[in-house]
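Let's study my pick:
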Amino acid sequence: MELRVLLLLPLYLPGLQTQTPDSEESRSEGSTLYIQCPYTAQINYQQQKAWFRMRDDNHWELLVKTTNPTEYSYTAWATKGNVTIEDNRMHKTVSITMSNLQAEDSGIYSCAYLSYSNQYHATKMISLNVFKELHKWELDSLSVQCPYSTQWYTTETKAWCQKERGTGCRVVARTDYTSTWHNSKALEDRTLIQDDTQQRTVTVTMQKLQAQDTGVYWCALYGSLTRIMEVRLSVSKRTQQYTAKESGNVSVQCPYSAPDYGAVSKAWCKERARKACTVLVITNWKPRGYLRTPQQGRVTIQDNTQQGIVTITMEKLQARDSGVYWCALYEHAHLFRMVEVTLSISEVLDGTTSSGTAGTSQTTPSGNTPAPSSNVNTFILLSGVLSILFILVLITSITLCVKRRKQLKRGGTRQAEDTYDKPEDIAQLDSTERMESPKDDSKDLKYVTLNFKSRLSSEDPLYCNVEPSQTHRKPEDENVEYAIIALKQLPTNDKG
């Protein structure tokens, strides 16, 4: 700890006895305070500037002052300990920097300048509050030391109080001055306050911290509740989350400090309205060995006091078992939460059965498992994918069929044209008869060609292209099975 040489002014600073601070500055331990104190044009830059602190006996302590600047210098500054002062005569502003703040730095401070009458005059006054910031888990303990500097406080009763929303501070524990050391247990029987008047230090201890203990606390003088030191406490819960199915089982494990709480009874309770917790099962008060395994209905609790683990098993789960539970210490009819457990029970789908067996856990933390309705969602997703694939296959099949039919149609037309229009595709005929149409029969018919395939047999069909007027009167004389008559428009012959 830094050793400071205190300079206590024999006279009070004029006007500071009754002056109230211009502002209150709050900083956490280890942080830095930066303050600017402007002064008027009537104050000469060559006048010395200083930074004072008021002691508990209402005397002012000079912490640091500027050196005498030269005529050509624009700034004057000085450092002492963790305090730096700088006077910028161009802007007529004094800047104060206090680094690595500690709780004992809390107090009232003032910027001042030295007048020609050799007296300091204040330009700005502040109240500095340096607080401790503590972060704890449930069931942790905390120990805080609150030093005070004045001898006058040694005879005062000290208190540990919790700040409320208003300006009040609810007393949790207090001391009564009867000797150098005095102990007084707190109202909740888990806080201890001690006042060492020789070292001028108040020590506060809190055990079995709970989330509801989060808040702002003061070490204070009991009579006026004057703050000695401020503590901002944050207590976090340990949490677990589980999901399980109806008719299955769940197994929960809650660790704790075996040396601290191995001998304390443990309980499993369910949180009800208004945050009350109803006890479902509790360990034996005087067990044999280090395993405690009492059972209540469908719930079993086992406490391994050697390893510091409480195991709770719930069997034949039902939907109404969903909710918030505590693993808790059970001491003097009070519950102190160790772990908060959130349990979600999902319904079993029709046609499915739970595979759980007694004594085995069917759950895992919810962050690593799907939600209770994941099976239904998976089925819907697969059905949708299969439907889309079926539609794609159907569209593809229809497209191929249409394309095939068009190809067949184009092929048939091309074959017909080759049969009747292309002479090279016509088989060689054994005999060909060309009959010129009489001029008086029909003017549209230019010629008729009758083709017989070679080596005709009695079973071979006969094909002919004729006009009705040119057919034989007795077609039965010809060995004709059937006839196809087609009229084709031939190109016009200019000569004919």
Observations:
- The chain is about 10% helix and 40% strand.
- Residues 374-421 form the longest helix (48 residues).
- The two ends are 136 Å apart (CA to CA).
